[in-house]
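Field guide to reading this record: the first block holds the primary sequence, the second block holds the structure written as discrete tokens, and the final block holds curator observations. Each block starts with its own label. This record concerns 6-phosphogluconolactonase, catalogued under organism Tsukamurella pseudospumae.

BLOCK 1 — SEQUENCE
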Amino acid sequence: MTEPTVRTFDDAAALVAAAADDLVAVIEQAQAERGFVSIVLTGGTNGNALSAALRGKVIDWSRVDVFFGDERFVAGDDPDRNALQAQDALLDHVPVPSERVYTFPAADEFSGDGELAARVYAKRLADNAAERGNGVAVGGGLVPRFDVHLLGMGGEGHINSLFPHTDAVREQDATVVSVRDSPKPPPRRLTLTLPAVGAARRVWFLVSGTDKAEAVAEGVGGASPEDWPCAGAHGAEQTVWYLDGAAASRLG
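BLOCK 2 — STRUCTURE
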């Protein structure tokens, strides 16, 4: 488990710009070393802003594998889907091969069977890991060794769709789970688990706002992941919190 690094910026725009530059450097390094790079995108204001910022960067998109940390289990054309927001912000504007974009199943693909959809996405992860020779064993499954897993965070410390005091945040065996009762709507979601997040080489948080300050302090300080899920997300090689001054205001 890596110790967190905290980087503080004047505002959200500055933290997003810095993270985008850092991500380009990681992409270039990974492609030079292994021929490809694996990135887990995140939604939310900062996550979508970062995705949009990547549109202006020089990146070899033909050698990028794109994943998602969670998804709202709604119809495929529902604008709440993270995948559609990522398309609008980034994926429709860059030449990333469609077969290298690993989206979660939509609710209308499996007649609303979230457990089946979770197993399908877990298999997609395992198949990619096997194909690339880049897998990490997690409980009963296999996930790619993501180069960067990007994360937003809620004011109560939730990441992906892992909320405090839920079965999902306690899960240690499965790599992907179905959430039926998310306290934040919509209630049905699919999410990577904490062990799957921890398989990433780097975990980067993008957090801004005073309403996130307490969760930031608890996450950086090593609180219980059951109370503050953000505290359970660590990269195998690096954990970085990109914060604006308001989000960092309760750090010692």
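BLOCK 3 — OBSERVATIONS
The chain has a mean pLDDT of 97.
The domain at 5-209+233-244 is CATH 3.40.50.1360 (Rossmann fold).
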